[in-house]
Amino acid sequence: MATTEDKLDSTNEWRRELYDAKPEREGELFSTISGLENEPLYTPDNVEIDYERDLGYPGVFPFTRGVYPSMYRGKLWTMRQFAGFGTAAETNARFRYLLEHGQTGLSTAFDMPTLMGHDSDHPRSLGEVGREGVAIDSLDDMETLFEGIPLDKVSTSMTINSPAAMLLAFYLCVGEEQGVPRDKLRGTIQTDILKEYIAQKEFIFPPEPSMRLVIDMIQFCAEEMPLWHPVSISGYHIREAGSTAAQELAFTLADGFAYVEACMARGLDVDDFAPRLSFFFNAHLDFFEEIAKYRAARRIWARELRDRYGARNPRSWLMRFHTQTAGVSLTAQQPEVNIIRTALEALAAVLGGTQSLHTNSFDEALALPTEHAVRLALRTQQVIAHETGAVNTIDPLGGSYYLEDLTNRLETEAYDYFGRIRKLGGVVAAIKENFFQREIADASFRYQSEVEQKQRIIVGVNRYELEDEQPVEILKIDPALEREQIDRVQALRARRDSGAAASALAELKRSAAQEDKNLMPPIVEASKAYVTMGEMCDALREVWGVWRETPVF
Amino acid sequence: MARKIRVVIAKPGLDGHDRGAKIIARALRDAGMEVIYTGLHQTPEQIVETAIQEDADAVGISILSGAHMTLVPRILEGLKENGAEDVLIVVGGTIPDDDAVELKKLGVAEVFTPGAPTTEIVEFLRGKVPVS
């Protein structure tokens, strides 16, 4: 047997002579949380790094090391905590509290009825109004939500997809009422309908008319709202549905390419809209795999935008993204341990070069977070930013043999998926064949089985359990809010100019039936006439029908 | 020979969080049960109808939208109105402890929160559903 004094000629020899001489631990897997196999050691023998081609410099193609030259030495990431509950008035009070304490960006969570295009008084909304976010039925509610908040001074993120066009129209109208023209409004609206069919399932209409609405919004923003991000292409929900890191990467980028292709098919120049596309990723627990995922994502996007879609403006090549820590990794057992999980996930997002970050609160496997829990979550980001030194140098893990190999392997897996999706006829065709849904369900079931066989250990769940858990304090939503909001939307319908509302709604329906009409202008007009979001969605349901998925498990 | 346990896995309400529902559905199927998954966005009435039509022994309700105190009682009432109160009801999702106690008082047999192993759910159903 070799000893450490012997000179070893290769990693293989090291493995044979030294590593294999001792048995490995049994039971737990050594693969990544997504199932990618890991070698015990990475060295120049088994990792090829072409620095100029694969890494380059921050702010320079292919942007593996970061989209900006100075990264966090120039500007820290935006700490953007997502908030919303109850009625518009209550969320307005929370927004103003956050702004008074120095926050410059707002991030709005909507309730389930709003996300699904139902007004608060719809029978399907019962029990769900204001529970998971704020209830917004009309421009009237949006006026309340942003009352006293100058829209030329803040950037606003809105997490909404199927009815995104209506919410964007409401926002634009509030801006105009405040004297802020639409070309001065800054913010992001999620709008990514493809991942709804794939993972989050907040869809209303069939994919084709939904895609038309997205492209209408991208076109409208390119022409009239140059500071707005009309779509945030999201892997977050794909991962939360149980996908692997490689699936999150591949499906998200495939969705991004589908939007680019649909815009180009409409005749838009790629450089007119691509700089305003943004992304949203998950930060899960497998530290290195996550960092590799972000780096691979930037590199693939830059290459495809430049080489496949012919974008000439370097800003079109940049993948800027928001990150949220993995809700799916939080446990209901010993919930304080979630603070630690979230901190490690957040650190991965920062080391992966995120532009903004939401850290989950430790109580979110139980309910919406309390103020105490939200503050701890924000403090987690502040500790990373100011105490750990993680921000002092750009892409500090770049050049790690392991990380570069993982980055390359995730990239290879992504291209393998792109090929399979293309063979199925593209993203929409693959959705209809349940391709993504099945891939995710398989991955999610495989992981669950590994946990149950204790090949994966979750602290407090399948090892180190406590017999008696102390209950933690959780947030309760006042059930009276639902009644208040129902009264509010019904009062609005009674007092608005009903003739104006009816004719604006009729115009929206007429436009929806004509494929070549951009729907944003009639949606803005209907918003001004106080047509509700649910009424507009119902009108579109009549013209386009609704989407029902065939469930697979 | 014992017949197979028939279980309806149901997703009431508007949320689309179906990871748990699908994992449970597959685990029960792998454990030899007949599983009917309703798919998303079901009303309480649709779930009651499915449970009756499918002659279910048990209904597993997966809910993560916070609307469980509104929707679960409506399913229980609907089953009772249709003389199907013998169907075993279990609930899974983000259910606070106080609500779980309340739901059990209303007739829910068990509430499983995130982290519950599928084997525990399989054993629970086998223990509660007479199949011979």
Give the key terms.
heterodimer, A: 553 residues, alpha/beta, TIM Barrel, five-stranded parallel beta sheet, four-stranded parallel beta sheet, 23 helices, 48% helix, globular, B: 132 residues, Rossmann fold, 5 helices, 18% strand
Quick description:
The complex is a heterodimer of chains A (553) and B (132). Chain A is of the alpha/beta class and 553 residues long.
Structure commentary:
The complex is a heterodimer of chains A (553) and B (132). Chain A is of the alpha/beta class and 553 residues long. Chain A has one domain (51-452): Methylmalonyl-CoA mutase (TIM Barrel, Alpha-Beta Barrel), CATH 3.20.20.240. In chain A, 48% of the residues lie in helices and 7% in strands. Chain A is built from 23 helices and nine strands. Chain A has helices at 11-17, 51-55, 71-74, 88-100, 112-115, 139-145, 164-177, 194-200, 207-224, 236-240, 245-265, 270-273, 287-308, 314-317, 337-351, 371-386, 401-423, 427-432, 435-452, 480-495, 498-513, 520-528, 533-544, and strands at residues 78-79, 105-109, 155-159, 186-189, 228-229, 231-234, 277-283, 321-325, 356-358. In chain A, the strands form two sheets. In chain A, strands 1-9-8-7-6 form a five-stranded parallel sheet. In chain A, strand 8, helix 15 (337-351) and strand 9 form a beta-alpha-beta unit. In chain A, helix 7 packs across helix 22, helix 11 packs parallel to helix 13 (287-308) and helix 13 (287-308) packs across helix 17. In chain A, 50% of the residues are buried. Chain B is of the alpha/beta class and 132 residues long. Chain B has one domain (6-126): Cobalamin-binding domain (Rossmann fold), CATH 3.40.50.280. Chain B has helices at residues 19-30, 44-53, 68-81, 97-106, 118-128, and strands at residues 6-10, 34-37, 58-63, 88-93, 110-112. In chain B, helix 1 (19-30) packs across helix 5 (118-128) and helix 2 (44-53) crosses helix 3 (68-81). Chain B is globular and about 35 Å long. The termini of chain B are close together. At the A-B interface, helix 5 and helix 19 of A face helix 1 and helix 3 of B.
